[in-house]
Every structure is written in structure tokens, then in C-alpha cells.
Write a structure and sequence with these properties.
alpha/beta; 8 strands; globular; 208 residues; binds 5-O-phosphono-beta-D-ribofuranosylamine
Length: 208
């Protein structure tokens, strides 16, 4: 089966990295995880190393130097597609345009609401009754590219830790599915792939 070469950029605790890793081990998943890039020494970096991935720690403060190094690794590993998974660095418009339609991100809000940092705090403060995440293409503006998928659930408890745990549980299910659909429909131009049915999750709406 034809598979795209995938790179994941991460700076967090790596739950989405792990979810994408697990999904990529499924026979019919259309991507092979080839390269992990971390911009700091973080849990995701340890997770990637433990899983024996080709993992690069690139810490240059200057964004041009950073991206130059990243680009070399992407080229050397014949990467087709990038998934940002808790990657806490804004990429330059030049880099984003070089990778147009080939960088996906997951952002923990119902975009276009609450782009940027400290999302959960702002969502709770706003009094929103719903929370969720968005998988989108990355363009030159922050958290503003084409929306590929979203899920939403009711905020029953405003304890931030609980809210994040809940949200990540759904992110980890959802991100691989949206990625799979994106590869099949936009890159392979086919629609005969199997969607995961999220019917067991009665309190969440998944749309992609
Ligand atoms: C996720 O909530 C994602 O939406 C945001 O950063 C967090 C990363 O979590 N962009 P993890 O490191 O994948 O667990």
C-alpha cells in the first residue's frame, strides 16, 4: 500500500505523537512515521527516542537557522507531510509556503475562537459551555488555516486539569483520523477509505 512519509514536530508531553505512532502501525494507515523534530528537551522527545524513531533535537533560537536545519532533515528523510503535535514554535511564512497544504496542526479550541496560547484558561474564563479541538492546515497566520476537522463536548466541570485530560483523550482519537482522511482525499484523491465511527462517544460531536 502506498504511504506518505510523515514527520511530527513536538514540544510537549507527546500524547498526540503517541496516538499518531499507534495509528501508523495499523496496516491500512496511509502514513509512515519517519522523523520526529523537537525544539526542546521535552517528554515528547523522550517518547520518540524510546520508540526508536529518528528523532532530532533542534534548539536554534534564530528561526531561519532552526528551519534550515529542519529542512535538511525533512529532505534527507523524503518527508511528504508534517503534523504539528503540541509544537510550541511559530514557523516562518517562508517555511509555511514551502510546505503549503503539507503541514497540519491540532489546536485545543474551536477555531476560529481562541487562537494562540493559554486556550483552556481563556475558554473557562469566557463562560463557554462547549470546548473542543481543531485540526487545521497551517498557513502564515497563527491558527488560521483551513479547518479539516473539529470535535466539541460540553464543559461539565471547569477544573482545568480535568478539562485538558478530557480534551486530550478525544484529540488522541481524532487527530489520526483527520490525518488519514486528509491523506486519502487531498493527497491520494480517493474517497474509498474506512472512516472510524465515533458512535461510542455519545457526549462528543466529531466532524471531519
Ligand atoms: C494538545 O492539546 C494540542 O492541541 C496542543 O498542544 C497539546 C499537546 O499535547 N497544540 P501533547 O504533547 O500531544 O500531549
Amino acid at each position: 500500500m502506498k504511504k506518505v512519509n510523515l514527520s511530527i514536530f513536538a514540544s510537549g508531553i507527546g500524547s498526540n505523537l503517541l496516538a499518531l505512532h499507534k495509528a501508523s502501525k495499523e496496516e491500512n494507515f496511509p502514513a509512515k512515521l519517519q522523523l520526529i523534530i523537537c525544539n526542546k528537551n521535552c517528554i515528547a522527545y523522550d517518547v520518540a527516542n524510546k520508540l526508536k524513531y529518528n528523532t532530532k533535537l533542534i534548539t536554534n533560537k534564530n528561526i531561519n537557522e532552526f528551519e534550515k536545519k529542519v529542512q535538511i532533515h525533512l529532505t534527507n528523510n523524503k518527508i511528504d507531510l508534517i503534523c504539528l503535535a503540541g509544537f510550541m514554535r511559530v514557523l516562518s511564512p517562508q517555511f509555511v509556503s514551502l510546505w503549503k497544504n503539507r503541514i497540519l496542526n491540532i489546536h485545543p479550541s474551536l477555531l476560529p475562537m481562541f487562537p494562540g496560547l493559554n486556550t483552556h484558561t481563556r475558554v473557562i474564563k469566557s463562560g463557554m459551555k462547549l470546548h473542543g479541538s481543531t485540526v487545521h492546515l497551517v498557513d502564515k497566520n497563527l491558527d488560521s488555516g483551513k479547518i479539516l476537522g473539529q470535535f466539541a463536548f460540553e464543559i461539565k466541570n471547569t477544573d482545568q486539569k480535568l478539562l485538558i485530560t478530557n480534551l486530550k483523550k478525544y484529540e488522541n482519537l481524532f487527530y489520526p483520523e483527520v490525518l488519514k482522511k486528509y491523506i486519502w482525499t487531498f493527497l491520494f484523491k480517493k474517497d474509498n477509505f474506512e472512516n472510524r465511527i465515533f458512535s461510542n462517544y455519545k457526549n462528543v460531536v466529531f466532524s471531519y
